[in-house]
Write a structure and sequence with these properties.
Helix content: over 70%
Number of strands: 2
Number of domains: 1
Radius of gyration: 23 Å
Distance between the termini: 69 Å
CATH class: Mainly Alpha
Order of helices and strands: HHHHHHHHHHHHHHHHHHHEHHHEH
Oligomer: single chain
Number of helices: 23
CATH topology: Sodium/glucose cotransporter
């Protein structure tokens, strides 16, 4: 199958899956508008799908919401640096899904919020809400720019290097903008189910074909890494120092950031009820846990093919070797399915992150000035913000930072929000304690990133996530113990229920 035909099949798949689903649901929604008007509180379909998302759709949406570029090309790229140890990043993505499905996602749905700052407002007030809105917007935007980079890698591979990654990001970004502007959360959920099925069929096919494209088979593959002094790249556990610096660091960073991030919780806010969020884990967990093992294998084979001179395209490097490998060596139908599903997954994450940026602004900044705005007006403003941040992300994608390192740095900014939410939900709600914790954790993040302090202390291998989490826990506990605060949200909710006779004392 020629590269042109593969490109046509990939684009046709996106048009049919995205356009067809969007058209079907749009026509269906028009017929249901009268019914929706009877429930105006839950009528913001664009952001929360009318809070009607069932657990299978929710499970696929949660999975693909954290699959995107980081799980696809980020793992392939990082395989060059840490070898098979990178598979722990895939395992690590299961932990925030557990946190969302059993905790934070259910809280957000129970409180009927459409953005994380709204939840923080109920816990700590308006000042904390505004500050955290800015931080969450920054983290969401960083992820969005990395997703745009992933779109660029796909179109770079589909054109066999004719389009650079930067040029591919422009093409992919335009498609992504069209997708998210036309679709809402409900359409994205339906498309995610289709993408999940196609992606796993393609991944299984790719895994079966992978061994057949390695010159000399897996024995030659293993022999090369051993003889070239890279035997450690084949170790799933790495060394104690690399396991600590990469595997544990990613588990903590993902759990305490994605578990409370806007993009992580956006699908959960659209769930029918809390039971559907809990059941969604049975889909989202396995989809994520296994997925990265396959992309890791593609990345490692790409590294082997380049370093042994089997793949000599001048534009191939760690960032796009996996994608180029698929185009050059896998059967055409497998490549078409795989890149179509990858493009769909990245578009899904692009949509959720850009939608998250829009939700953060509309529901926390714009709504303060226009509190009586209609759902239609809120949707229009959200779409404008999506357009603006998406265009900026296309520009930012040209800087091409390391994908996993970039997203982990952004996660360090969100971790303090996770712990303060725990304190506010179950211990006490102290805005002062939260403010102190945020300030010191974020200052520590900047110091650890931009000064020589880690090297001076002999702790250069300690990731910034450890610092952010450590400061958040220690300072949070001390500040909340020392400062007064309001009753914890869950305790207050229980008291109300006791007074109304809904639960026994």
């Amino acid at each position: 199958m020629s590269s042109t035909l593969i490109l046509i099949v990939v684009l046709l798949y996106e048009v049919v899956s995205i356009g067809g689903v969007a058209l079907y649901l749009t026509l269906k929604e028009r017929k249901a508008r009268k019914a929706a008007a009877e429930h105006p509180a839950d009528n913001d379909d664009f952001l929360t799908a009318g809070r009607t998302m069932s657990w299978p759709v929710l499970g696929c949406s949660l999975a693909l919401g954290v699959l995107g570029t980081v799980k696809i090309f980020g793992i392939m790229e990082q395989a060059w640096n840490v070898g098979t140890l990178v598979a722990w990043f895939s395992i690590a993505t299961v932990f925030p899904l557990v946190a969302i499905s059993l905790g934070t996602g259910r809280w957000a749905r129970r409180m009927k919020v459409a953005s994380m700052p709204e939840l923080l407002y109920k816990l700590f007030g308006d000042k904390i809400r505004v500050v955290c809105c800015g931080v969450l917007a920054m983290q969401t935007f960083i992820t969005l720019s990395l997703e745009t980079q992933g779109l660029g890698i796909i179109f770079n591979a589909l054109t066999r290097g004719t389009l650079s990654i930067t040029q591919g990001a422009i093409v992919g970004g335009i498609i992504g903008i069209a997708y998210v502007i036309v679709a809402g959360m409900k359409e994205m959920g339906a498309v995610n189910v289709i993408n999940s099925v196609v992606m796993y069929i393609a991944l299984i096919a790719a895994a079966l074909c992978l061994g057949g494209i390695v010159p000399g088979g897996w024995d030659s593959f293993t022999e090369y890494f051993v003889s070239s002094g890279q035997a450690q790249a084949l170790s799933f556990w790495g060394t104690p120092s690399t396991f600590f610096a990469f595997a544990i660091n990613n588990i903590l960073a993902l759990t305490f950031a994605q578990g409370i991030s806007q993009m992580g919780l956006q699908p959960a806010m659209a769930a029918k009820d809390e039971r559907h969020i809990k059941k969604a884990l049975w889909l989202s967990g396995p989809i994520n846990g296994v997925f990265g093992l396959l992309t890791m294998a593609i990345g490692m084979v790409g590294k082997y093919m380049v370093e042994t001179g089997q793949m000599e395209l001048s534009t191939v490097n760690a960032k796009n070797a996996g994608a180029m490998l698929m185009v050059e060596y896998l059967p055409g139908w497998v490549t078409a399915l795989l890149l179509a599903a990858f493009l769909g997954a990245i578009l899904s994450t692009f949509a959720v992150t850009s939608l998250g940026c829009g939700a953060l602004f509309t529901n926390n900044i714009w709504i303060a000035k226009y509190p009586n705005a209609t759902p239609k007006q809120r949707t229009r403003v959200t779409q404008v913000i999506i357009l603006i941040v998406s265009v900026i992300s296309i520009i930012m994608a040209s800087f091409l930072p390391n994908i996993i390192n970039g997203v982990n740095w952004s996660f360090a900014w969100v971790a303090p929000i996770f712990f303060n939410c725990i304190f506010g939900m179950f211990w006490k709600r102290s805005a002062k304690a939260a403010g102190i914790t945020f300030a010191l954790a974020w200052i520590a993040t900047l110091v650890w990133t931009f000064t020589p302090l880690p090297a001076m202390l002999g702790l250069k291998g300690v990731g910034v996530a450890y610092i952010s989490i450590g400061v958040s826990v220690v300072v949070g506990l001390i500040a909340n113990a020392a400062l007064p605060g309001k009753i914890a949200y869950m305790k207050g909710l229980r008291k109300v229920c006791e007074l109304e006779g809904l639960v026994s004392k």
